[in-house]
């Protein structure tokens, strides 16, 4: 179980500015093992900063993240290496996460070396399994990222994250910039992967229509605050806050 307790974060407005703005106001939330969660809100609402703190990539100003009641951030907010095995994040720009000079197979194999110490034969076998799992031909092992489409690069990033056998997988605007058919296909594949592998899924999006398709639990954020968290089973009336209803209307759900 992942739990945030009064988790908050602020940033300076400029390199030398003493003024700070709040990216995430104190947030307390629970993400249960194997659950599917969406964090939805407009750009600048704080959802990506919240996700990065859960992933161990952004130091909080206050509060902490707990995994089975063990705090993530210790003294001086240092994060232990094993956390990056437990939680993986798929960034919005998948291409930037892949080294353009090495094959996608070698990119996928990096976590296998780092976390499991697999030999060459074991890595190749596991890489082929991950490519197949992510609906890619095993022949893509030798390709460079520049030889792949945006959707294929996204699948490579997912395969690379799954190589660590994470307990939690975070997708930050995973379908942003894709046309509607490809967005739908990738979302379906993410849901199928979660069901097959069993990781906790946290899906970050500004689109309420995607949020309710992907997840059973919806966290709505606005202006750094958690507005509400609801269990959604198809009835939009469970959303009570005005801002949530604005998002529902914008997505054509109500």
If you had to describe this structure to a student in words, what would you say it looks like?
38% of the residues are buried. It is built from 8 helices and 10 strands. The mean pLDDT is 91. The protein has a 6-stranded mixed beta sheet with strand order 6-7-8-3-9-10, sandwiched between helices. A 4-stranded antiparallel beta sheet has the order 2-1-4-5. Helix 3 packs across helix 4. The chain is α/β, with parallel strands linked by helices and 254 residues long. Strand 1 (2-12) and strand 2 form a beta hairpin. The longest helix has 18 residues, at 180-197. It is globular. The chain starts with a strand and ends with a helix. The chain has a single domain (2-250), classed as Rossmann fold, CATH 3.40.50.
Short description:
The protein has 254 residues and is α/β, with parallel strands linked by helices. Helices cover 34% and strands 25% of the residues. Strands 6-7-8-3-9-10 form a six-stranded mixed sheet, sandwiched between helices.
């Amino acid at each position: 179980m992942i739990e945030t307790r009064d988790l908050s974060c602020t940033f300076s407005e400029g390199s030398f500015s003493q003024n700070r703005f709040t990216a995430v106001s104190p947030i307390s939330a629970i993400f249960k093992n194997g659950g599917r969660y969406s964090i939805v809100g407009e750009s600048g609402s704080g959802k990506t900063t919240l996700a990065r703190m859960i992933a161990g990539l952004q130091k909080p100003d206050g509060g902490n993240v707990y995994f089975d009641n063990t705090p993530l951030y210790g003294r001086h907010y240092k994060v232990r290496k094993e956390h990056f095995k437990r939680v993986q994040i798929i960034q919005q720009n998948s291409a930037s996460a892949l080294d353009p000079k090495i094959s996608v197979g070698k990119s996928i194999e990096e976590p296998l070396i780092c976390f499991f110490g697999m030999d060459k034969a074991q890595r190749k076998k596991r890489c082929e399994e991950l490519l197949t799992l992510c609906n890619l031909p095993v022949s893509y092992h030798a390709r460079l990222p520049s030889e792949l489409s945006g959707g294929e690069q996204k699948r490579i990033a997912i395969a690379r994250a799954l190589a660590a056998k994470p307990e939690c997988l975070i997708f930050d605007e995973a379908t942003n910039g894709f046309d509607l058919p490809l967005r739908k296909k990738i979302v379906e594949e993410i849901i199928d992967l979660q069901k097959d592998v069993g990781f906790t899924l946290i899906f970050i999006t500004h689109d309420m229509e995607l949020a309710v398709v992907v997840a059973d639990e919806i966290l709505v954020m606005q202006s750094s605050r958690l507005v509400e968290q609801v269990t959604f089973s198809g009835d939009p009336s469970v959303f009570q806050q005005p801002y949530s209803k604005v998002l529902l209307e914008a997505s054509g759900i109500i």
